[in-house]
Amino acid sequence: MKKMLEFKAHDGEIEDIALGPDNKVVTVGRDFQCCVWQQDQLVTGLHWHENLPGIPDKAYRYQACRDSGTFLGLGTVTGSVAIHIAFSLQRLYYVKEAHGIVVTDVAFVPESQPGRELLGGHEAALLSVAVDSRCKLHLLPTRCSLPVWLLLLLCAGLIVATILLLQLAFPGFL
User: Fold this and answer.
1) Dihedrals φ, ψ of 112, to 5°?
2) Which CATH superfamily is domain 12-138 in?
3) Beta-ladder partners of 82
4) H helix or E strand, kind and range, residue 114
5) If DSSP codes are grouped into helix, strand and coil, which group holds residue 154?
6) What is the domain partition of the chain in residue ranges?
7) Rounded to whole angstroms, how far apart are CA atoms 149 and 151?
8) Least confident of 58-72, 85-99, 100-114
9) What pTM was estimated for this model as a whole?
10) pLDDT 10s digits, 16-58
Protein backbone atom coordinates (compact mmCIF):
# COMPACT_ATOMS: atom_id res chain seq x y z
CA MET A 1 0.00 0.00 0.00
CA LYS A 2 1.14 3.51 -0.72
CA LYS A 3 0.08 6.59 1.24
CA MET A 4 -1.79 8.97 -1.06
CA LEU A 5 -2.78 11.77 1.33
CA GLU A 6 -2.22 12.84 4.92
CA PHE A 7 -3.98 15.63 6.80
CA LYS A 8 -5.24 16.47 10.30
CA ALA A 9 -8.92 15.54 10.41
CA HIS A 10 -9.66 15.74 14.15
CA ASP A 11 -8.19 16.82 17.46
CA GLY A 12 -7.56 13.48 19.13
CA GLU A 13 -8.50 9.98 18.03
CA ILE A 14 -10.74 9.09 15.11
CA GLU A 15 -13.53 6.77 16.29
CA ASP A 16 -14.80 5.61 12.89
CA ILE A 17 -14.36 6.23 9.18
CA ALA A 18 -16.63 5.46 6.22
CA LEU A 19 -16.07 5.75 2.49
CA GLY A 20 -18.85 7.47 0.58
CA PRO A 21 -19.71 8.15 -3.03
CA ASP A 22 -17.63 10.52 -5.19
CA ASN A 23 -14.46 9.75 -3.20
CA LYS A 24 -15.85 11.35 -0.07
CA VAL A 25 -14.80 10.17 3.38
CA VAL A 26 -16.80 10.56 6.60
CA THR A 27 -14.98 10.62 9.94
CA VAL A 28 -16.13 10.83 13.55
CA GLY A 29 -13.66 11.76 16.24
CA ARG A 30 -13.21 12.17 19.96
CA ASP A 31 -13.38 15.93 19.39
CA PHE A 32 -17.22 15.66 19.21
CA GLN A 33 -17.34 16.24 15.44
CA CYS A 34 -18.48 14.35 12.38
CA CYS A 35 -16.81 15.53 9.17
CA VAL A 36 -17.29 14.87 5.45
CA TRP A 37 -14.07 15.19 3.44
CA GLN A 38 -13.25 15.40 -0.29
CA GLN A 39 -9.52 14.62 -0.47
CA ASP A 40 -8.09 16.80 2.34
CA GLN A 41 -10.79 19.48 2.10
CA LEU A 42 -13.61 19.68 4.64
CA VAL A 43 -16.92 19.57 2.72
CA THR A 44 -19.23 19.88 5.73
CA GLY A 45 -19.46 18.80 9.32
CA LEU A 46 -21.78 18.19 12.24
CA HIS A 47 -21.23 19.87 15.60
CA TRP A 48 -23.36 19.16 18.68
CA HIS A 49 -23.98 22.80 19.57
CA GLU A 50 -25.32 23.54 16.05
CA ASN A 51 -27.35 20.39 15.40
CA LEU A 52 -28.62 19.46 18.85
CA PRO A 53 -28.96 22.72 20.82
CA GLY A 54 -29.45 22.41 24.54
CA ILE A 55 -27.36 19.25 24.74
CA PRO A 56 -23.90 19.94 26.20
CA ASP A 57 -20.96 19.26 23.88
CA LYS A 58 -18.97 17.24 26.35
CA ALA A 59 -21.81 14.87 27.32
CA TYR A 60 -22.22 13.33 23.87
CA ARG A 61 -19.90 12.16 21.11
CA TYR A 62 -20.33 10.58 17.69
CA GLN A 63 -19.05 7.01 17.87
CA ALA A 64 -19.89 5.21 14.61
CA CYS A 65 -20.71 6.29 11.05
CA ARG A 66 -21.78 4.69 7.75
CA ASP A 67 -22.56 6.40 4.44
CA SER A 68 -24.99 4.63 2.08
CA GLY A 69 -24.47 7.18 -0.67
CA THR A 70 -27.80 8.86 0.02
CA PHE A 71 -27.83 8.79 3.82
CA LEU A 72 -25.34 9.02 6.65
CA GLY A 73 -26.06 6.89 9.72
CA LEU A 74 -24.55 7.88 13.06
CA GLY A 75 -24.36 6.30 16.50
CA THR A 76 -23.24 8.03 19.71
CA VAL A 77 -21.57 7.12 22.98
CA THR A 78 -24.89 7.76 24.74
CA GLY A 79 -26.78 5.23 22.64
CA SER A 80 -28.53 7.71 20.31
CA VAL A 81 -28.97 6.94 16.60
CA ALA A 82 -29.46 9.42 13.74
CA ILE A 83 -29.84 9.37 9.96
CA HIS A 84 -28.83 12.44 7.92
CA ILE A 85 -28.95 13.27 4.21
CA ALA A 86 -25.37 12.55 3.08
CA PHE A 87 -24.73 15.66 0.97
CA SER A 88 -26.30 18.31 3.23
CA LEU A 89 -26.22 16.56 6.65
CA GLN A 90 -29.85 17.56 7.25
CA ARG A 91 -31.17 15.31 10.01
CA LEU A 92 -34.09 13.09 8.97
CA TYR A 93 -34.29 10.66 11.88
CA TYR A 94 -33.14 10.76 15.52
CA VAL A 95 -33.78 8.48 18.48
CA LYS A 96 -32.32 9.70 21.74
CA GLU A 97 -30.89 6.81 23.75
CA ALA A 98 -32.06 4.10 21.33
CA HIS A 99 -29.61 1.91 23.24
CA GLY A 100 -28.73 1.94 26.90
CA ILE A 101 -25.08 2.75 26.22
CA VAL A 102 -22.44 3.20 23.50
CA VAL A 103 -23.46 2.42 19.91
CA THR A 104 -20.44 0.52 18.61
CA ASP A 105 -21.47 0.21 14.96
CA VAL A 106 -24.18 1.12 12.45
CA ALA A 107 -24.86 -0.34 9.01
CA PHE A 108 -27.46 0.26 6.33
CA VAL A 109 -29.49 -2.67 5.05
CA PRO A 110 -28.19 -3.33 1.51
CA GLU A 111 -30.38 -2.61 -1.48
CA SER A 112 -30.46 -6.27 -2.53
CA GLN A 113 -33.69 -8.25 -2.98
CA PRO A 114 -33.75 -9.50 0.66
CA GLY A 115 -32.88 -5.96 1.80
CA ARG A 116 -35.80 -4.46 -0.16
CA GLU A 117 -38.12 -7.03 1.41
CA LEU A 118 -36.96 -5.93 4.87
CA LEU A 119 -37.42 -2.26 3.95
CA GLY A 120 -41.06 -2.69 3.01
CA GLY A 121 -42.32 0.77 2.11
CA HIS A 122 -39.54 2.59 3.95
CA GLU A 123 -36.82 4.67 2.34
CA ALA A 124 -33.90 3.23 4.33
CA ALA A 125 -33.14 0.86 7.18
CA LEU A 126 -30.24 1.24 9.59
CA LEU A 127 -29.03 -1.46 11.96
CA SER A 128 -27.37 -0.32 15.18
CA VAL A 129 -25.34 -2.46 17.59
CA ALA A 130 -24.40 -1.37 21.08
CA VAL A 131 -22.55 -2.41 24.20
CA ASP A 132 -25.97 -3.28 25.72
CA SER A 133 -25.83 -6.48 23.57
CA ARG A 134 -28.74 -5.37 21.41
CA CYS A 135 -29.13 -4.94 17.69
CA LYS A 136 -31.92 -2.60 16.60
CA LEU A 137 -33.44 -1.87 13.21
CA HIS A 138 -34.32 1.77 12.51
CA LEU A 139 -36.69 2.38 9.59
CA LEU A 140 -36.71 5.75 7.83
CA PRO A 141 -40.23 6.47 6.54
CA THR A 142 -40.49 7.40 2.88
CA ARG A 143 -40.52 11.17 2.51
CA CYS A 144 -43.47 12.71 0.71
CA SER A 145 -42.70 14.80 -2.34
CA LEU A 146 -44.71 16.48 -5.07
CA PRO A 147 -44.06 15.73 -8.73
CA VAL A 148 -42.56 18.71 -10.59
CA TRP A 149 -45.51 18.87 -12.99
CA LEU A 150 -47.94 19.24 -10.07
CA LEU A 151 -45.84 21.99 -8.53
CA LEU A 152 -45.78 23.87 -11.86
CA LEU A 153 -49.55 23.44 -12.22
CA LEU A 154 -50.11 24.85 -8.73
CA CYS A 155 -47.87 27.85 -9.50
CA ALA A 156 -49.74 28.55 -12.73
CA GLY A 157 -53.05 28.32 -10.87
CA LEU A 158 -51.80 30.75 -8.24
CA ILE A 159 -50.77 33.27 -10.92
CA VAL A 160 -54.16 33.04 -12.65
CA ALA A 161 -56.00 33.40 -9.33
CA THR A 162 -53.90 36.46 -8.42
CA ILE A 163 -54.66 38.13 -11.77
CA LEU A 164 -58.40 37.42 -11.38
CA LEU A 165 -58.42 38.84 -7.82
CA LEU A 166 -56.58 41.97 -8.97
CA GLN A 167 -59.11 42.38 -11.81
CA LEU A 168 -62.01 42.11 -9.32
CA ALA A 169 -60.41 44.50 -6.82
CA PHE A 170 -59.34 47.03 -9.46
CA PRO A 171 -61.71 47.03 -12.46
CA GLY A 172 -59.88 47.99 -15.61
CA PHE A 173 -56.60 46.62 -14.25
CA LEU A 174 -56.04 44.67 -17.44
Assistant:
1) -85, 180
2) YVTN repeat-like/Quinoprotein amine dehydrogenase (2.130.10.10)
3) 74, 94
4) helix 113-119
5) helix
6) 12-138, 145-173
7) 5
8) 58-72
9) 0.72
10) 998 887 888 899 988 888 898 998 999 988 876 565 556 655 5
